[in-house]
Amino acid sequence: MPTPMPLLPQEIAPVTPQQAALTDRHLTSRGDALMAYFLALRAETDAALAPRLPMAAGQAYPYGRCEEITRDLFARLASRVARPVTAMDRAVREFVAAGGMVRTVWGVLRERYFQNAIQFGGLYVDVSNDTVVVTKPKVEILPIAESGLVSPRSLAHFRETAALYWGASVYANHLAPSLAPLLPMVSASPGKLLPGLQSACDYMIGLMCCDAFQEAEAWLRDGPPPPPDVAEAVLATMPEDLRAAADGRREAVAACTQAREAGCATDKAWRDARVMDYLRMMDARGLPAEASGAP
């Protein structure tokens, strides 16, 4: 039997029979108590985040804040499980102790949205279900197989979803060649997100590394360059050392080739250095990475 490929960061994990059984035994069987538990955690997260997060795309919290809400709630969950007090704290702790998988996941939801969630074995727990349509319930719990969440398959899948979700136009990153192997796209979503490089989420960065930047290189070679107004907006806060010297398309394609030949796809230090370069751009804007369009 072939060895399974390791999961990418935030990739949805297959639900094995063992995980399904553990989920049923420790979590699904608790029914309404499980929903009440996550609603209570979400209330704590709301109390912490709502006063300090600015509006997103002109709309108040929780709109557009799925990543921040999921991250904050997951940290609260980890703290509760480490020092259990309630029956549900203990149930989640027992699930993990028995081998139950808990991981944050990110993907395309129902072929329409980008969404963050938490996977508990065979369960999809969306603790930010109201961040696109704010009148929806705050938490949704479903079997993973019924959730409609899938991991993006390719750059094309990402672009299609960005067009539907953000109303985005997506271009080739000919502006910052050294970042292009990991962040090969530039998106522009008028009224939604500032023009920026895509996609600075762990899953998409990992996906670009999977084929040693070959898909990124093909898009950079054949994709359209950003129009002048989009390029100007991105370059306005880009450090000089990250900018293309002359021919951005040629330099971006060459960066992929060079990174592949140097084995950078498996070099964590190289990847981390590129991410830090990206964060320098965000610091220059005075914005968190999410504000530029990182899902």
Hey, roughly how much beta strand do the residues contain?
A: 5-15%
SS summary, helix count? 11
Adjacency order of strands in the biggest sheet: 4-3-2-1-5
Low-confidence segments? 289-295
Order of helices and strands: HHHHEEEEHEHEEEHHHHH
Explain what you see.
- With 295 residues, the protein is α+β, with helices and mostly antiparallel strands.
- The protein has 2 domains: 134 residues, no CATH class; 138 residues, no CATH class.
- 44% of the residues lie in helices and 14% in strands.
- The longest helix is centred in the first third of the chain and has 18 residues.
- It is globular.
- The C terminus is likely disordered.
Helices and strands in order:
Blueprint: H1 17-26, H2 32-49, H3 66-82, H4 87-97, E1 102-109, E2 113-120, E3 123-126, E4 140-143, H5 144-147, E5 149-150, H6 155-166, E6 169-172, E7 185-189, E8 193-198, H7 202-210, H8 214-222, H9 228-235, H10 248-261, H11 268-285
Antiparallel strand pairs: 1-2, 1-5, 2-3, 3-4, 6-7, 7-8
Helix pairs in contact: 1-4, 2-3, 3-4, 8-10
